[in-house]
Amino acid sequence: xxxxxxSFESPSYAVATPRLSVAIPFFRxxxxxxxxxxxxxxxxxxxxxxxxxxxxGSDDPPGLARLADAVQESEAPARLLAFSANQGRSAGRxxxxxxxxxxxxxxxxxxxAPDAEDFLExxxxxxxxxxxxxxxxxxxxxxxxxxxxxxxHAAIQQRGECVDAAHRAQAPAKYVYASxxxxxxxxxxxxxxxxxxxxxxxxxxxxxxRIAKQYPISHIDNPASHLGLDGDAALFGxxxxxxxxxxxxxxxxxxxxxxxxxxxxxxxLKFIPAKAALMKGLRAVAQSPSPxxxxxxxxxxxxxxxxxxxxxxxxVRQFLIESDGR
Length: 326
Prior knowledge:
Elements: E1 6-9, E2 20-26, H1 32-42, E3 49-56, H2 61-73, E4 78-83, H3 89-99, E5 104-108, E6 112-114, H4 119-130, E7 134-136, E8 139-140, H5 151-160, H6 165-168, E9 180-184, H7 185-190, H8 203-211, E10 217-219, E11 224-226, H9 232-252, H10 261-269, H11 275-286, H12 292-325
Parallel strand pairs: 2-3, 2-5, 3-4, 7-10, 8-11
Antiparallel strand pairs: 1-4, 5-9, 6-11, 7-9
């Protein structure tokens, strides 16, 4: 955790007693369109919603100045915090929780766009009616502009992640993403995000698996669209970053995640030979003009091989540690 470099508030922030805190971390991404959308609805909700933004070390003075002006001019309760250096996804969300004031906190990624005009009101009603420990609202590509460059990422999300609440409820902990996630204050205080997860991926899934051992996880259909789809190079770069985090998830919760298809397959593949050559071929297929189904299959298998290699390295490290201790 670190101290904030700068802070900006709207005129109504100090007098509000919010029932819902919306927490939006961002790093080198412009959250101003999302902020304006939320403010448009929040200003009519009688100071019951506060909007908290965290610039996690973007080092973009003009962008920060534009957002600070928007916050200070907002009719809704809002606050902008700015770090001088990047702290990471988990640490940033933990900091936003510490700064929030409501009983329920809604984590919302900066590249999301609410699909319904009563998005915040729906979350408020759900929180007040059920006082849930944790609820995921879902996400979609309803408002997302899909280009040839982002078609692969869109297809992967549409097949595996853009699913309704009834589907998600069959495996509640598996579908916990911090992109649109409501959490009760006492739950997060007892179980913050694990700051040992670095880079991209799996910190929110690990959090979901961890809290599912003590609290119920519910799902509703109150989705937001994921606008920030990646091109192929950025997508594969994130997959490479996520290997170590995947291995940490499996190490921390081996039994809880044993049935996950990605975990089962990665365990089977972790010691196969020539993974590097196979990955190179799979990436070539995934980035080729092949049919979308073939590209998706190749990309998913490429990602699984990254996870398999991470598990193999983790197994070797654990063996060396245990051998050294004997």
